[in-house]
User: Fold these one by one.
Assistant:
Number 1:
Amino acid sequence: MADATNARNVPGPSGFSNKKRKSNTTSPDCDVSMVKKTRFLKDVVLTRYGGVLEGRVTSKTPIKEWSKNGKEGKLFSFLMADETARISVIVSGDKTDEVFSTIQVNHCYRITGFKPKPVNPHFSSTDHECEVTLSKISKIKEIERDDIPQTQSLCSSIASILNIEKNCLIDLTAILFDLLPVQNITCRDGSIQKKQTALLVDDSKKIVSLDLWN
């Protein structure tokens, strides 16, 4: 008579143990990005990569082409906000055109496969210490998030600019008062850039100059 205590360890007819194993497969209907926990934008830090970000796009820049040391490329950025913070998302390389045509202001998106990097405070319009860059493995999906309100810009007056800290980015609504002739400016690297100055005025009866390049 066989020993019943050892029966559970006897290999089955196929040569494999009869012991059940836990499956590691994911349901084909499951969105893998949803398995990961969504992080608030305020929780993005330099020491932690990956995860899922969700937010509403509040603005995006035009595509900018660059050339340096014989290399060329293009990039653009957009601002994304949730109920905790705002953060800048930088898109460059082969994904630039595709993502630019996808992103729409006031729409909400889920981002995975991103990388945080330190922000340059002189070129940032947010209070966040980080900005997010996208790579070839990054994925963006439009989502519905009615709990994230649409944000409205708080415009400054021209008169208040003198009281604003230097190198801060602001929103300004004004009337074009005058447009000066285009100038050719020689840069340090020898390249020629076009510059035109616009004079703006608003209800505060103050005038400010705005330099436009290229």
Number 2:
Amino acid sequence: VCLPLDDSTVVLSGHGPQTTIGQERAANPYLRQVAAAGQGAGPTAPPRRGM
């Protein structure tokens, strides 16, 4: 969901200081793993009730 967003997109995590998609893409090991696997790109299904 977040990988297609621009690097300058601000993220307000709720549990720490604000960051950007670019900073998270560079420093967050989970996002690096998702990007390497080719996940997170392209359209996603909308949220469903009860998720």
Number 3:
Amino acid sequence: MPAPPTRRELLSALAISAAAVPLLGTAACASAPRRVVSQGRLRHAGIGVGGMGWHDLERIAAHPEVDIVALCDVDANNLAKAAERFPDAHTYTDWRELLATEAGAIDSVHVTVPDHMHASIEVTALRAGLHVYGQKPLTRTVHESRVVAREARAAGTATQMGIQNRAGHPYRQALALFEQGHIGQVYEVHVWTDRPKGWWPQGVGKRPGSDPVPEHLAWDLWLGAAPERPYLEKIYHAFAWRGVLDFGTGAQGDMGCHLMDPALWFLGLDEIFNLRSDGPVPTDDTYPLWSRVRMEFAPTPATTRGPLVLVWHDGGRKAPRAILDDLGAGDDVYDNACLFLGTDGALLASPYEVPRLLPEARFADVPVPEVPDVDHWFGWVDACLGRADPVAPFSYASFLSETALLGNVALSFPHETLLYDHEGMAFLGRPEADAMLSSSYRPGWAVRGLG
């Protein structure tokens, strides 16, 4: 199984071998060779153009040096809307047909489809030498994530995962505060989200029955590599799939990639070695209503000497009340946040709110830094054109996604500490957990190295 080098190996080598899968973000990626667009304009294809796919398409197309050449979606309604907006673009229902037909006519793709199809499309596009923007999480399984990172390195193209919040003001202001050294060495991080409650169903069993497939939806293509099952109206397409084990990655995969990002990014975390879930187990079909997963990472220069503890909470649960009260965080603490506990104070970061140093009385005289505007999508386009380095390349996104996906594995082994061999991509003495690091693909949907 492909195994990535540690951050320390990466920095000491100052170069990355062709077989390696780097884990560090922008700093490590800056020295990596990349193919760039030679004709001066980026010829782009959108794979998945409804919902977030529409947003990705609009933001990428807004760059003055992008031409939208092709569009693909399994939902004819989504495709019609996008085709009306970009009438010169060729349209497809099957992403495989798009990549085969448009070979040589496109330079890049975005992949904004249900999680279970991320890896297949990303790997195929990378092997075709394309620049790839992939939505979070990078993949649905840990093995897929490592394969995608390896293929990205081999392709040498510009890659970026859709964690656009790292380009937003709140996170970059939090990073500036962190780098000023106010909170000292970090020993523990708590990360939480209000998802999935009120967003999509979880904690329910497999729903019986079937409904007629609407004419506008190519259901077999929507299923793709996932096991075959009947269509149910409003249960899977277009958004509720996130909580389904075969299709999505639950709250950890959806929001963990946004909310754990500051922890891995600011602290330089690159090696996780144990996990423990203290919440309910998944049902036969969906992730649980809530979860709490404790993870331990190898220490870095930004942390205390012992293992760095990160605790994930979802379903509306937050950091323990005793911790929040001790910091004077108040009852209005953010619904989606990453809380750093340091030797000299704490930092509360949220993708949607101004960061806070805690206790606030101690840091009353510390202003929130001003930061310049950054466009996540434009930055990736500029990377494709050879002018910049992507801020969330697959080399980094792979480990961020892997962290969230490992948390999902832990859900099935409640109240048990799972020891994880990061380099070997295996749990020690737990073959049942190892089996959850990869998945089989439906016949006819295998991609070399996947499924």
Number 4:
Amino acid sequence: MFDFIFYRLLQLIGDAEIEESPVFCPSHPVEEKESEEVKHIDFDLSETEQVQEAVSCLPTWSEREVNCLNPSFHRWTIMDYARAYHSKKTTPLTVAERFVAAVSESSKPPFNMSFFINYDVEDIMKQAAESTKRYELGRPLSVLDGVPIAVKDEIDCLPYPTTGGTSWLHKLRPCTGDASCVKYLRLCGALIVGKTNMHELGIGTSGINPHHGSTRNPYNSSRICGGSSSGSAAVVAAGLCPAALGVDGGGSVRIPASLCGVVGLKPTFGRVPHSGVLPLNWTVGMVGILAGTIEDAFIVYAAISSKLPSHQNTALPKLCFPLLNSSRPISSITLAKYGEWFNDCSDDIRVCCSNALDKLQKHHGWKSVEVTIPEIEVMRLAHYSTIASECSTSLSSYLEKLDSSQLGWDARVALAVYGSFSSKEYIKAQKISTLNIPSYIQILDLFKDNILHLVVGAALALKSMVL
């Protein structure tokens, strides 16, 4: 597999003559377009105020009854927790106690789910007690107060070490404080419940980990969750947390989200601060969100989105929140379908996606139009070259001090391939990015003008593997 990718890269990138100058950070036009379907958020709002603005954009559904004592499975949303706390049907302390018991049970035979690399019962209960006290005083910080949120072990979060899914990285790179995104969640009162499992160093998409156990899929424990944010997707799918943080460079949030049946969001480059995150691929790796619903992903996005870009060379427009309470009819949605890409998957997945598309068109009146995305294969390989080169460079000082036996076999193979890319190939990959900016802007304009709304296609080309 790696040999084939490397050969294709040499074919399409190594020998290419490209006149354009390289662009080393994602480039997107800064434009604040007025729309009746979005709300522009001022730069001077606090994290809790941004969360409140997000809540004001949600539909005002009548409160559904949540039975806290019913043993049947129910995946709670952030608003379910907030309403239950306000109405005194339960408390953050009670939720924390049940969470700890559930995680402990899931870690033992016959389950062996391997959701977490680290969780600290004392720290969880301390946070829960403080949150419970705030509710007793009638002063919760936000709707996130007391809501359990998990964090991928690629993101700094005290009191835990940041292992990156390894057995050694935390010894060479101690965690000295919270990442910015974690700080923002704490300011909103979120109950940080531990560090989730991940594919070693984030350089695989299965979630199989030789050091901390392979995270099992809650829907079928004999299958993988996908990766690299495997544990974050699994805890959400299992109903342990309504949301979790992941990191996504080439699908590491979106792949496990797909295999676990949850929402996966990779935000725009620069929108969520990257400080305190392992710098494995700094121009394409973004802190992302896994959540049980779009609304929950939206609320967490509002909490962690920064007013300042995470990269000094990036200019960002104001935060733009979708009005999910809009009265716009759902039948007005137009999907873009690139046939060559849509069909590039196994037959059973292609048939499943085609059936889903047919249902959306027949039952909801959605439209589908054929489009072409130029040079998508070249862009994919250039993206791979970028990830590989940046990961190899960022880890080089650590790997020099490391016995390779401390790495899993797939990490060893991947890093050997990553280290074989030359500076010429990296530069040419960035030139390809420049070359495709006009096509990107052209497609973006179609979305801005509401001609198109979504590009449709399979999230994955193959089904979940058996462990």
